[in-house]
Structure formats: structure tokens, C-alpha cells
Design brief:
alpha+beta; flat
Length: about 475
């Protein structure tokens, strides 16, 4: 690095580093950040995965950790076919591999096998506490994939809960900062007093000059999780509840009037408490900590919302829950789990089944971020209430007719696009694998497809299916399923 530039940066950011004998030198801090180049493929349309894939190159930043590992964002390395990294101190690129990836917290851990990588990089430590509101942080990264490391100054505005845009589902702790962040900064660290206080991961679309950091508590959860050799994710409470204030309801359910707690409304299947709790149970304690009428857990005289109390812990951790049922006070011990029924909201799902010029896919969130203007509103409604209205009792994952190749015999089925498959030859398919199995078993007979909200079914003769397949393959080069 140019000595003049180095001296300028040293003077400019000296208060942020607050150098002591125990803290790393400025050049060591700069060597802790790497440029990440992700080479992969993407489809032009996420709900048309059979379309021809295109090569792309994405860029991001990463934080060097001990043992030749790199912490970055999951969205920086998603779908990577090849990952190359290098530090500002070297022109050599090193091949890296994704070892762990957490889609629910937008974090990933990479490994570099070449031992020379350690000679050009330095590992940094993490702060033990969150930065003070109003304090400054130094943001390091490679905006827009630039060849040289960039530094920017930001100030901490607030520690809050916010949606992680990568999954579009998870609400977790974030550090809101005032800073000019560009694409490519993702995965780069925020430094204060020579320690990492967060990782850059998204910018605000509503407020100019506002960005967000993944704070150290989420990072610590991720790194602790993978320490056993696999990533499990965050546990989930798995039930909905209402405040336990109504005195008359307590009296009717034989619950002591002075006992604070919450009423269980709905319990999701295959979740933490699904084998223990029932609807209308009154929960008064969890993990040995009392619960207020508003769902706050009293931990060492500090109040924490019960959802956060659960998600702060690791998967499969044991916890005790105390509750009333029919006037009796019961105690049970459970292993914390995910809410597996809600995972369909997170899963992008790109599986498909193509026959007779018709493409069938499992419903996923990908359908609701498409630019296709004729997306059926009833499909949105059905998907949104798949969990809330207990529709999961009937199928594991609904199947939808997502696309139709232009063909003389299928043109009359345009109104069926984006409709949910109700049955195939009288059977309700549990998932796309089951759908394909039923179709295969009936391929020599007539295929009858009934759709939710449509009075008339689609009826396909075996000879017609064969002829359509040949035309679609010849005209579009579509890779239809062999059955």
C-alpha cells in the first residue's frame, strides 16, 4: 500500500482503532478482509428452471478467521460453482469452498486449502459487546468488486429487529448504521477498537445512506452452531399465543388468577412443543424463567420476548416448560426444534415435472417475486394460508401448473396456469415426487388432472402426450422427463 495513503488512513481512523499493545496493527486489520469472486450460473426466471442457464460473476467481501476460514454472507456465495478469494496484500487468487451456509441468517463459512493463504492474511477477533449507540465503526470491503480495498466510516444508529432480505422470512437482530455502502461490501466487517462488531449484509431501500450489519450475537450463534461439523439453524417457538390477561378466562380454565402467563392458540406440527402442548394450554414458565402476561421471559431480572428467548438458543438444546391444562400444573422437557411446516416459506424449490408441454412445480416463494403479471391471486391466498388454515394436513407441498409450452393441443389450457393441482387420476399428490409417480403409473392410460377452482379437468390421452412431447422437444429443445 502507498505509504502516503497508509499514513492518511492511520490518522483518519486512529480513534476507531484506538491502538494498544493488545490490538492489531492497522495493516493487519486491512489484511483480514478478502475480495470474493463467485462464478456460477443462474436462470433467467426462477420459476422456469428448465430454461437455458447463463454464466455470471458476482462479487463480495469476506472476513478472515483462524484455520484458513472466511466468514461472508450466504447471498455472496449462493449457487457458486467456483469461488476465488484474495487479500489486498496479494494479487494471487485462492480457490475457496463453501463449508457451511445459513440461509436463515445470511452467513456462510468458506475454507481455503492452500497453506500460502495464511501468509497473505490476518485473522481478527470479535468484540465481546455490541457497539454503543452513536459510536463510529470502520467498514472494510470491496465495493462493486473493485481490485483495491476500500474503507468507509459509519455510525451506529440502533440495534433493532428487521427482516433479513435474503430469506425474506426471518426477523433477527441487526445493527442499523449510517454509512455509504455499495454492492460488493456485503460480507465485509465493521471494525471498532480493532475488533469485529458486525458484518455488512444489506442496505435500506427506503432510507438513503442507511445500511445494516449482522451483529455479533447472530454471528456467534452461527459459528457455535457449525462447531459440531454441521449447520442446524435457529430453533423456533412453533406455536402462536395470546396474552394471559382475561380474568374470566382464567377462572373458566381453573388457572390461579394471580398466575401470569400466555394462552396457546395454535401449535404447528413437527415443532418444538407439538408433542407436549395443546391448544388452550396456559404456559407460565420456560427454561426455569417466569413468563409475563405479554409473553416476556424474565431472565436474570431482564425481560426478553419468548420468541427471542427460544431463537437465541441452539437447536436440540433442552428446555423445561411449565403449563396448566384443565386445572392441573404440568412440567415437560423438550429439545428445541425448527418449525418444519414453515420451512416451505423459506425453500425456493426449483424442482419441476414436464410432460405434454405442461410444467408442474411445487409452490414456493419464487412464484411471488416473479414479474409475471398473470399470477393467480387465489394461488397467493392459498399459499399464504397453507399453514394458518392447516392446509398442510392434506399435502406436504401443493403442486401448481406453472408453465405451458405453446402447442396446438395445450393452447386451450391457458386458464389453468398457476392453478393448484387437486388430484391426478383421483389421487391427491403429496409432493412433486408423488405427482410424478402417479403420472408414471398411469402413463399408458388417460391422465385426468383436476385443479382447485376449475370445474372441468384436463384430460390427456397417452398418444397425445407422446406427440406433444416430440413437438416440444423438437421446437424448444425442452428437456422433458423420461418416464
Amino acid at each position: 500500500m502507498n505509504k502516503l495513503i497508509y499514513s492518511f488512513l492511520l490518522l483518519l481512523y486512529f480513534p476507531l482503532f484506538s491502538q494498544t499493545q493488545e490490538e492489531p496493527a492497522v495493516d493487519s486489520i486491512f489484511r483480514s478482509v478478502v475480495l470474493i469472486r463467485n462464478e456460477g450460473f443462474y436462470t433467467e426466471n426462477k420459476i422456469q428452471p428448465w430454461m437455458k442457464k447463463n454464466l455470471y460473476t458476482g462479487y463480495g467481501s469476506g472476513l478472515v478467521l483462524p484455520n484458513q476460514t472466511i466468514l461472508t454472507n450466504a447471498h455472496v456465495v449462493m449457487d457458486a460453482k467456483r469461488i476465488l478469494v484474495r487479500s489486498s496484500d496479494s494479487r494471487k487468487e485462492f480457490v475457496a469452498e463453501v463449508k457451511y451456509i445459513g440461509y436463515d441468517c445470511d452467513l456462510a463459512l468458506l475454507t481455503v486449502s492452500d497453506p500460502e493463504f495464511s501468509n497473505t492474511t490476518t485473522a481478527l477477533g470479535f468484540a465481546k459487546e455490541q457497539p454503543i449507540l452513536g459510536s463510529d465503526v470502520l467498514l472494510l470491503g470491496y465495493p462493486n468488486g473493485s481490485d483495491t480495498l476500500s474503507v468507509a466510516k459509519g455510525s451506529v444508529l440502533r440495534l433493532e429487529k428487521n427482516r433479513y432480505s435474503y430469506s425474506g422470512l426471518d426477523f433477527r437482530n441487526v445493527l442499523k448504521i449510517n454509512a455509504n455502502i455499495q454492492p460488493g461490501n456485503s460480507g465485509g466487517p465493521a471494525i471498532q477498537n480493532g475488533k469485529v462488531v458486525g458484518v455488512v449484509f444489506q442496505i435500506s431501500k427506503q432510507e438513503q445512506g442507511i445500511a445494516y450489519l449482522i451483529p455479533i450475537d447472530i454471528i456467534d450463534h452461527f459459528l457455535t452452531d457449525v462447531s459440531d461439523g454441521k449447520y442446524d439453524g435457529f430453533p423456533n417457538i412453533g406455536f402462536t399465543f395470546q396474552a394471559g390477561n382475561p380474568t374470566s378466562l382464567k377462572k373458566a380454565m381453573k388457572i390461579p388468577e394471580s398466575e401470569p402467563g400466555i394462552y396457546v392458540n395454535r401449535i404447528y406440527p413437527n415443532s418444538t412443543f407439538s408433542k407436549v402442548l395443546k391448544e388452550k394450554d396456559f404456559v407460565v414458565s420456560i427454561g426455569g424463567n417466569s413468563i409475563s402476561n405479554d409473553g416476556e421471559v424474565n431472565v436474570n431480572n431482564k425481560k426478553e420476548y419468548i420468541v427471542d428467548f427460544i431463537e437465541d438458543k441452539q437447536m436440540n438444546a433442552k428446555t423445561e416448560i411449565v403449563y396448566y391444562r384443565a386445572g392441573k400444573k404440568l412440567t415437560s422437557e423438550v429439545n428445541l426444534q425448527k418449525n418444519y411446516s414453515l420451512e416451505l416459506y423459506r425453500d425456493p424449490v426449483e424442482d419441476y415435472f414436464l410432460q405434454a408441454g405442461l410444467v408442474f412445480q411445487p409452490i414456493s416463494r419464487s412464484f411471488f417475486v416473479t414479474d409475471d403479471g398473470d399470477l393467480d391471486s387465489s394461488l397467493k391466498y392459498h399459499y399464504s394460508y397453507f399453514i394458518q388454515d392447516l392446509l398442510f394436513r392434506y399435502t406436504t407441498r401443493d403442486i401448481v401448473l406453472s408453465y405451458q409450452f405453446a402447442d396446438p393441443e395445450t393452447s386451450k389450457f391457458k386458464k389453468y396456469k398457476f392453478k393448484v393441482v387437486e388430484s391426478i387420476n383421483g389421487k391427491i399428490p403429496k409432493d412433486i415426487k408423488d405427482f410424478k409417480s402417479i403420472w408414471t403409473a398411469n402413463q399408458k392410460d388417460i391422465i385426468v388432472l383436476k385443479f382447485r377452482g376449475m370445474d372441468l379437468p384436463i384430460v390427456l390421452r397417452p398418444e397425445s402426450v407422446y406427440q406433444i412431447n416430440q413437438r416440444v422437444k423438437k421446437r424448444y429443445g425442452a428437456n422433458y422427463d423420461e418416464i
